[in-house]
Amino acid sequence: MKTRFRVATIAVAVTALAASLAACSSGQSTPAASDSASAAEEVTVKVGILAREEPEIRFLAENLADEGVTLEYQIFDDNIALNRATFDGSLDANYFQNETYLEAQNQSTGQDLESYGPWLQTQAVQFVSSKYDSAKDLPEGAVVGIANDQANRARELQLLADNGLIELAKGVDSPSTLDITSNPKNIQWVEVDPRSRAGAFPDLDAMTAPSITVYLMNDPSINVLYEETPEVYEEYGGVVWVVPSGAGDLSWLDKAIAFMESASYKDWIADYYAGIKKTPADS
Asked: How many helices (H) and strands (E) does the chain have?
């Protein structure tokens, strides 16, 4: 990416010089310096997202267009593939994950991706069911769905432990079901790909999921049995921009982040998602 931007800048400079010489020889005036500078600042970038982030990235793209940034996006349904495409340079950046998930993915894949800027929005993890009104009503041997990746699974098990449904071994940073020391209801665990939760839900007695996933399911029969407190989901943080390590000119991303930290963006998020997605000021 760094090379491409350098070549583009050189090309613009050569073109401007040729135009200036031609204008002098013909007696025509040259374009204003500010016009040339504006043309040089225009850039097109491609980012990867999940479908749940499309509304805000579309809104962002509309506003960045006024600043000379053409933001194109590609929707993925696979977290692993999304990070791989960012790592191999098919994408300039991605926007879907938090720092904890990113660190776990870097460790497991050997990829060298890094976050850029602060977290910009987040949501609570919930424990939900359409079959039971309370966690106390879950039967012996209830079938419960949890995430199948290390970072999300640990966070979701912690939610259940914090509410007394299970107990976890102390001192374990990323607990799995193997670290459950007490399971009074003899819950049977089903590890589900985070993108497949909606499809798996009908076969489960209950499941853990981010509140945005539950919101997008649009199922009035769903009961929220537990939900993370603001203190917990603020500690985990939220979605950050991710780029390849050593990425080149990221001035376009500085503009994106500046807008996403603005009051107009935060007001739009609050209105569009009816409070489900939180920004740092209101989380």
From this structure: 11, 12
In the chain, CATH 3.40.190.10 covers 44-122+238-272, 125-235
Residue 22's alpha-carbon distances to 17, 32, 33, in angstroms, are 9, 15, 16
DSSP category for residue 194: G
Question: Does 22 have pLDDT greater than 70?
Answer: no
| Nearest of 46, 49, 44, 40 to residue 15 by alpha carbon | 40
Closest CA to 269 of 120, 91, 106, 101: 120
What percent of the chain is predicted at pLDDT more than 90?
80
Question: What class, spelled out in words, does domain 44-122+238-272 have in CATH?
Answer: alpha beta
DSSP labels, 123-138? --EEEEESS-SSGGGP
pLDDT, one tens digit per residue, over 88-146 is: 999 999 999 999 999 999 999 999 999 999 999 999 999 999 999 999 999 999 999 99
pTM comes to: 0.78
Residue 233 structure tokens: 């989901």
- Tokens standing for 219? 């199922």
Alpha helices in 132-200 (DSSP H): 150-162, 197-200
Q: Could you tell me if 45 and 93 are in contact, meaning their C-beta atoms sit under 8 angstroms apart?
A: yes
User: Is 8's pLDDT higher than 80?
Assistant: no
pLDDT of residue 6: 30
**Burial annotation 162-171 (CB, 10 A radius, 16+ → b, else e):** eeebbebeee
CATH topology of domain 125-235: D-Maltodextrin-Binding Protein; domain 2 (3.40.190)
